[in-house]
Amino acid sequence: MNIGIIGQGNVGRALREGFERGRFAVRSAGHDRQQVREVGQWADLVVLAVPYFGIDEALAELGDAIDGKVLIDVTNALGQDLEPAVDELHTSGAELLQGKAPNAKVVKAFNTVFAKHMSTGRVDGQALSLFVAGDDDQARESVLSLGEALGFEGVDAGPLENARWLETLAILNIRLGYGVGLGTDIGFRLVHA
Fold it and tell me: How far apart (Å, rounded) are the C-alpha atoms in residues 109 and 158?
């Protein structure tokens, strides 16, 4: 599987490192419009790892290159002030993204994890839960498999509507890490029988 990553910040670099360690073919692009388009065309699956306020620009650059492809949304619907940019009770950034890219198969994943743990899916040797939400069953399964290849414990979080709660969980993670002072060596793990 060819994985294209749009965004070369902390999240994009961490995911690229993890995917390459898992021996996936990976290409990434930052702000170069032509390179973004080429990566989108080359990839079987595209990871959108840009800040929330950069989504529209990335989609414009990708154009129809993502049509029919899995588009993993790792963003969180936060403004530059780290305050929620959408009303999570009624929608999510991922649902809005699906509306903007109707021919892609949007899957919400990786957003509840600090970037430094994305390449391994672990904190202090313990596997973190990778919550995956999306409306296309096969796309969701593909992303769960990718996450497990990195070291996460995959959790099928159901339809894309549930991205509302994953984005809220991400805000809690950020607030615990930075606001309460727990730092970034934390993460969520769902324990079930």
Answer: 11
The DSSP secondary-structure symbol of 118 reads T
Distance (Å, whole) CA 47 – CA 44: 10
Residue 128 lies in a domain: yes
The separation between the first and the last C-alpha atoms of the chain, rounded to the nearest angstrom, is 32
The amino acid present at 102, given as its one-letter code, is: P
- Rg of the chain on CA atoms, in Å: 15
Cα 140 from Cα 142, distance rounded (Å): 5
Q: What is the domain count for the chain?
A: 1
Residue 192 has pLDDT above 90, yes or no: no
Q: Which residue has the higher pLDDT, 148 or 87?
A: 148
Query: Structure tokens of 90?
Result: 């009624």
DSSP element (H, E) containing 10 = helix 10-21
Note the pTM of the prediction, 2 decimals: 0.94
Q: Which residue has the tokens 């360690």?
A: 21
**Residue pointed to by tokens 């702000």:** 31
Q: How far apart are CA 50 and CA 97, in angstroms?
A: 13
SS3 77: coil
For residue 127, give the CATH number of its domain: 3.40.50.720
CA distance 114 to 79: 17
What's 120's DSSP letter?
A: T
